[in-house]
């Protein structure tokens, strides 16, 4: 059994989407001959978008960080970065690097893989790993070049160039992110590879038995269809364009919105304003366990994807897309036309894609959803996005890296 040392600032024991990928990989990689030792910061209260016990901590911390970001944004802007590019997790880097060196002295791994964001884990691994042990870096979402973090300066790109200069592979989760990295770091070339995000195959046990928004029988009263947004809602995932579209006479009264997960302060204000000023039914459910989140997806009529360019739409796929599809739910994808829409197009599941800046496309997508236009992809098309299958691809990459190291 080969040994992988996984370095991540965010503990994989935390619930919610950001940790789910490696929580699953750590479970499945032993099937492919790899045991995983995890090195991370301590589990942080409020780190999960579906953690009911910490929901107050989430709201308090988010509000404080939002105020700090507003105060410091002009200063950060002088360096061409946004405040979110340098979160408090950066303070963990020296400790993380020391922990990496200690773990390698104790038992040298075959490969060290650092995953982020947060970027702190990647920088700690780069500072702590010493040749000849191979280092692999995984950017689940981009850091430099991402409008959520980068305001057009060169500082993040310079740090990223140092970070990637000694790595054996760079893993990105979308073809758009791979292209972006290869363009900005041409010397990396084929060392940048894609291993997409996906869904846990265990989700199939919660497969829905309800209809997917099919037209009602003749003479039957049409019930409002539930559009569920599962996960964190931020201003870069705006709800207002959908609310305005749902007020259109062509679809008014046919839909209701359910929001399950953490709402940022800005998003909560947006929702409260929509409740006051529109007739669209909106229900907000407090954060809960991942299992309950999946259960809510299973009984909803459609899954909602909201992602603007400011949330990294050009290169990042909203992770809930995979769970919506695995549960047979139509994804109503309202974005700026980036990676999530491109994924659905490749899967032949883009019937319900619309653009944030084009209200008519949102209304048209709602009409198609109401009339049952969506046809879910067949199981064979979704199979490569099972995290068990993706763990197999990761194992192949790790084998290739170790073989290259030993043959060098």
Please characterize this protein's 3D structure:
This protein has 408 residues and is α/β, with parallel strands linked by helices. It is built from 14 helices and twelve strands. It folds into two domains: 219 residues, 3-Layer(aba) Sandwich (Rossmann fold), CATH 3.40.50; 183 residues, Glycogen Phosphorylase B (Rossmann fold), CATH 3.40.50.2000. The chain has a six-stranded parallel sheet with strand order 2-1-3-4-5-6, with helices on both faces. Helix 5 links the parallel strand 4 and strand 5. It is globular and about 65 Å long.
Short description:
By secondary structure, this protein is of the alpha/beta class.
Tag the structure with descriptive keywords.
single chain; 408 residues; alpha/beta; Rossmann fold; six-stranded parallel β-sheet; 14 helices; 12 strands; 15% strand
Give the tally of β-strands.
12
Helix tally equals 14
Terminal-residue CA separation: 22 Å
Number of individual domains: 2
Task: Summarize the amount of helix as a percent range.
Answer: 25-40%
The CATH topology of the largest domain, please? Rossmann fold
Strand content: 15-25%
Instruction: Outline the biggest β-sheet.
Output: 6 strands, parallel
Please name the fourth-level CATH homologous superfamily of the largest domain.
Glycogen Phosphorylase B
Order of helices and strands: EHEHHEHEHEHEEHEHEHEHEHEHHH
**Briefly, what CATH class of the largest domain?**
Alpha Beta
Strand order of the largest sheet: 2-1-3-4-5-6
Q: What gross morphology would you assign?
A: globular
Summing up helix and strand content along with how strands pair, one would put the structural category as alpha/beta
């Amino acid at each position: 059994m080969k040994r992988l040392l996984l370095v991540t600032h965010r503990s994989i024991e935390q619930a919610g989407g950001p940790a789910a990928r490696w929580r699953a990989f750590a479970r499945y990689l032993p099937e492919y001959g790899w045991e995983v030792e995890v090195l991370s910061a301590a589990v942080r209260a409020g780190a999960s978008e579906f953690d009911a016990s910490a929901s107050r901590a989430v709201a308090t911390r988010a509000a404080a960080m939002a105020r700090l970001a507003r105060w410091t944004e002009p200063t950060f802007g002088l360096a061409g970065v946004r405040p979110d590019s340098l979160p408090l997790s950066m303070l963990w880097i020296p400790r993380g690097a020391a922990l990496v060196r200690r773990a390698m002295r104790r038992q040298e791994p075959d490969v060290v893989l650092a995953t982020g964001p947060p970027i702190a884990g990647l920088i700690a691994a780069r500072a702590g790993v010493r040749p000849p042990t191979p280092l692999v870096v995984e950017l689940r979402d981009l850091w430099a070049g991402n409008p959520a973090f980068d305001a057009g300066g060169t500082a993040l790109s310079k740090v990223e160039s140092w970070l990637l200069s000694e790595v054996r592979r760079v893993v990105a989760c979308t073809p758009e992110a791979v292209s972006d990295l290869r363009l900005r770091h041409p010397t990396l070339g084929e060392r940048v590879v894609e291993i997409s995000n996906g869904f846990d195959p265990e989700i199939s046990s919660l497969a829905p038995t309800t209809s997917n928004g099919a037209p009602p029988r003749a003479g039957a009263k049409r019930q409002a269809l539930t559009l569920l947004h599962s996960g964190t809602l931020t201003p870069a995932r705006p709800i207002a364009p959908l609310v305005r579209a749902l007020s259109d006479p062509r679809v008014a009264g046919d839909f209701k919105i359910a929001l399950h997960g953490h709402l940022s302060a800005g998003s909560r204000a947006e929702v409260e304003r929509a409740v006051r000023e529109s007739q669209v039914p909106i229900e907000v459910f407090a954060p809960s366990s991942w299992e309950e989140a999946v259960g809510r997806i299973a009984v909803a009529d459609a899954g909602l994807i909201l992602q603007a360019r400011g949330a990294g739409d050009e290169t990042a796929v909203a992770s809930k897309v995979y769970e919506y599809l695995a549960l047979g739910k139509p994804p109503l994808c309202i974005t700026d036309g980036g990676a999530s829409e491109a994924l659905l197009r490749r899967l032949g599941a883009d019937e319900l894609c619309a653009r944030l800046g084009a209200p008519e496309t949102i209304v048209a997508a709602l009409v198609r959803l109401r009339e049952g236009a969506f046809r879910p992809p067949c199981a064979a098309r979704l199979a490569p996005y099972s995290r068990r299958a993706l763990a197999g691809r990761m194992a192949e990459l790790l084998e290739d890296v170790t073989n290259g190291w030993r043959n060098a």
